[in-house]
Protein 1
Amino acid sequence: MQDDIFPAAEKILSDIENVVKKNPSLKSFEIIPAEDNENKSPVFHQEDCLGLASWCVQPLYCYAYRRLFELRQNKHRREEPSTIARWLLGALLLNPDVTTFWNMRRELVRSHKLEASEEFFFSRLVLYHKPKCFEAFAYRRWLLSYILNSKDGHYDPESVESPLCRELDIATTCADRYASNYHAWSHRRHVITLRESRGFAYPTLETEWKNSLAWCQRHVSDYNVGEQWKEELFAYIKSNISDTGDMHQLQRLYDWMNAEFRAITSSRRRQRQTTYFRALSYWLEEWRANDSAICTYNDHEALWCHRRFLAYLLLRFMASNHSYHEDERADGRSVDESAERKNVQKSLTNDVTVCHDFLVQAFHARTNKIADLATKRDQHEKMLVERFFKFLQSIGFEIRS
Amino acid sequence: MVKLYALSILYKNPMSATTLKAAYDVESFSFFQRGSVKEFMIFISKTIVERTQSCFRQSVKEGDYMCHVFVRADNLAAVLISDHEYPRRVAHTLITKVMDEFAAKYPQSTWETLSETMTDFAQINVYLAKYQNPNEADALTKMQNDLDETKIILHNTLEAVLKRGENLDELVSKSQGLSAQSKAFYKTARKTNSCCSLAP
């Protein structure tokens, strides 16, 4: 760290602070390459966008860093909270990966020197500049639980403008701006879990499903390699690469299916039937999207891996439904022996079996068709297709009867 | 990400190429970079057309971007700049189509004297917007391969397209179409060893 003091630092910091405070609709922060100062202010502000010329980045950061650590290491020193906040603003905008600085901000929020709502705004700027910054996401999560706990009972879970919707927006922007952004997706997962545990009505799972599907169509091969993530989600998928977005969606679908099935009692058979077809409709939608993506994009392993997962899910799904119908039949026999009821059960079971056969056949036919297309157009993709078929064999995916 | 950034129609003179009409989508870039990004797209499109022989189709990869170019026998050319995930076949279908339409509106004899500001060809913006989603735009051509993909020449870097003895850094520093600001952007992007710092 250089020893010399940067005389313009305080002026630049307060310029930045002014822009941030005065413009609540500020959207972005970025560093503009510029080799020398040309005697002009390095702070640019245009149309809700904030820019800082690159020549002042190093001296400015060094200045803020030194001030903050001097303060932190010397317990007897006191400084105005507003001054500390200003140094932190400068330091974190330029380098947001320092946990100590975020902790200092947390302390200021706790002692009511900083407004939580303004902190959401500030960390959003940081995430625009560094969309993969874990510390900033962690800070937002902390802020969320801070406001939800402090105003306990005051927030309106039915409100359309829930703070969670804003979090999803940010997660989307960050995932757009940085490919394979694990932190953005785990933030998303956290928000959805929070929605469950805090009983928020919005964002609905339905919109989340649609949005993430749309996102996946825009980012074909955005995948993440992460052992932990994978194991947590699907311990049974044995591929190394998994499509982050898709995984996220499907885990929800899967959870949802399981939950729905558990929730319904055995007497409400009809309802089960509708639930079953509804769950299936999600699978179909995903399948169709995967089909058209493979047709459009050459040679993307993520798409074929995702297709494996779809095949696997279909198998699991059929197995679970099959067994539940067996159970049902057993139940029926012991409780009620009337012929009429038996017939109803039989027809339902038949419906489901026929439906399964159709599905499997359709899946096979379609797979063969696109496999043909893929093998012809690309040598590398041919290998992917072969692997895919091997996988189908290994999980025992075949047409019954 | 599947994204289109620029679509331009150019006329290839024996010595240089002139832009006849162009459309850009630079919304995904940070605000202060947009101007430079646009200048670069113009610069790259011109450079690449000047170095592509007529009747050739090329797709050139540079960092996170892909330049698709086609110069027709009559020296009309089109360049599409996309990210590397955008399907090649759709990209080339698009530039062929755009040129056909342009040639139908402006006959060959006018190309030499046409300038970008005079040209009225708003459809180019419509095309750029519509083809952002290759699924929608490509619904008809998806299954039938009317365009022979094997005819597209692939290059892994822009340098591969340049003539012997040329290099990109030099071309950039000599270029008059690029502002000092844009050249500074380029240098920074080079220093961090990728185009990523220019990327959104």
Protein 2
Amino acid sequence: MGRKLLLEHINVPGINTFDVYRQNGGYRALEKALKTMSSDDIVEEVKKSGLRGRGGAGFPTGMKWSFLAKPEGKARYLVCNADESEPGTFKDRYLMTYIPHLLVEGMIVSSFALGANTSYIYVRGEMMPQIRILEKAIAEAKAAGFLGKNILGSGFDHEVYVQPGGGAYICGEETALIESLEGKRGNPRIKPPFPAISGLYNCPTVVNNVETIAAVVPIVNDSGDEYAKLGIGRSTGTKLISASGNLNKPGVYEIELGVSVEEFIYSDEYCGGIANGKRLKAVVAGGSSVPILPANLILKTANGENRLMTYESLAEGGFATGTMLGSGGFVAFDEDQCIVRNTWNFSRFYHHESCGQCSPCREGTGWMEKVLHRLEYGHGKLSDIDLLVDVSKKIEGNTICPLGDAAAWPVASAIRHFRDEFEWHVTNPKEAMERNFGLAHYADPLPKPEPELSQN
Amino acid sequence: MKVIIDGITIDVEPGTSILNAARMIGGEIVPPAMCYYSKLEGSGGKCRTCLVKVSKGSEKDPRPMPKLVASCRTTVMDGMEVQNITSPEVKEARKGVVEMLLINHPLDCPVCDQAGECHLQDLSYEHGSEATRYEFERRTFDRIDIGDKIQLHMTRCILCYRCVYVADQLTEKREHGILGRGDASEISTYIEKAIDNDFSGNVIDVCPVGALTDKTFRFKQRVWFSKPVDAHRDCPTCTGKVALWYKGEDVIRVTGRKDVYGEVEDFICNTCRFEKKNTSDWVIEGPRQISNRSVISSNHYEQLAPPPVVRKNLALQAANKEEFERATKH
């Protein structure tokens, strides 16, 4: 059994209420932090823990916190990004629904570390129940004296507010989230300046994912060094993985980083194998925006090593043969799933969610969606496949925010690894409407990729 | 601060953007800009045509920037090295952006009033490919009248947001913005309310394409047949410095004075723009200098001088030194 930090007490009945959470050691971190630690101590512990942003980018949280500008006479803000809307990711919703006090406690401790007297939880508009749950949790914490003026006699004042968003994927991008929180149109800002210098209301702001903030609680409880003992290398601690797709036991799992992908899919402790005794075809390992990998490459890297659930191991091989841990949206596809249809579906999502601010993303996402729709419904041409690759390259890296990259990667990787399936859709349009391509005969293991030509 | 753009070194003030530094050098190395407008605060960064490669971050930190950056919104650092037309990567990316801008553009230049002074036309001519790879229906919108003087033809819009910044910054109320999201976004006034402000007509001048047009000028004359003249009047609201566009003896249009980058020198008021269309309203200063590379000048003020043969031949240039200098002054 892997060690659980966030979901340790998830099965205790009534853990979503203040009393039960408190009886199970809740708000211990808050007391410890406010009574015995200085704010710099907490930042130091988080740095030592090696905690990396759980929202997808994997940026070291301690470093992000230490970048926060601290000008005199200006408020600082902590914003919790609960705009979880990546297809395949549902861990934050789970955490907020079943153990909301963990997030509230994390918010207070993190705000204390950052010196923020006001913090916001920006929740996606569709998550109405979670908004009510969080508001109830905040009210309970306030009644117990963990929020408000002079918390536990430490002289630290703090308020947490829950702000529902409008349900836009783009508002999960930190600067778009800040714009939306300010009451404006949720368009990403052009960086620099980064939020750590000028964020919410032009004040220094830290935006962290729900899981990141929750992970601060065990770090403060057990110390950063203790947390860093879990995991492998620079991937420390535990991570919530939202497993979905054709698995026997889909759901949210807390894993110690470093579990092998094979164990995660097939062991009974986690997903319990592919449903209905079918074979694994492909995996999207970190939410819809990361590159999709065929079964052989997700289980073993191109060098033949076991692939582990860590930031580094999943990225092994770069974009040619690797993927990313992302936000931990683990979607498994069995042999009966159609990659073309799935790619079209992802594309449709990004087309719908593009904010329309910068041209490559606004126009390119729609273009890719239309071409993929044509391929899926049997009107495609062989040249469409290269066209898609080219359009995705024109979008990637040329946009203001990472949504362009997120839209381009799934398409480019699906074509890279499943080109024969795309071609089959063009050459056998009738058959493609009736049945799926099934497993392809991939060379296994794949030959080593040629080193990319160095760019001048 | 020293910055090197395409191998040309220039000294600029701290805080200058790469684009403005390139404009100080001038010539072919200036990245095209469809959304940046130096007189509108916060504009730029959206169209991505001005992408450049920063091959050396600064003297202190010589690492190159990982991605191409929007030159209009990136400030220079001391010792920065920038590649624009010398980088194949930039050229490729720019071609991609131009293609993206054009896939949903109606390409109705033959009936568009902006033709001849349209930035998208210039941009696609210089950086685009001759054929499209887009085989789907282009997006269309109904035409909307914004007040009785301005027409919005969203179909042609490239969503540069310039007019939104004009409405935000020149007028008192925010009455003009973006509705919708992604490729369904559209410029609009809230519930088609008329813009009612002395400076609202400037949205026409800042529009790089034919999406916002002057209804008092629509379909009157192709812009390259009209003759631009600098003029001014004593205006209580604005500076009154404008360009008049003549068709024979009649003033058919009044606009701000645009520089080589299509930016007006001064924003003008609606009275000057729409009401004063008699020569007697104005003090004429003289013919407007238009770059001899523009189609507008092709018929009148400047010829394509000196002839290309002289441009290429140094001996001929030396022999006609005085004439050559006069002709290439602008």
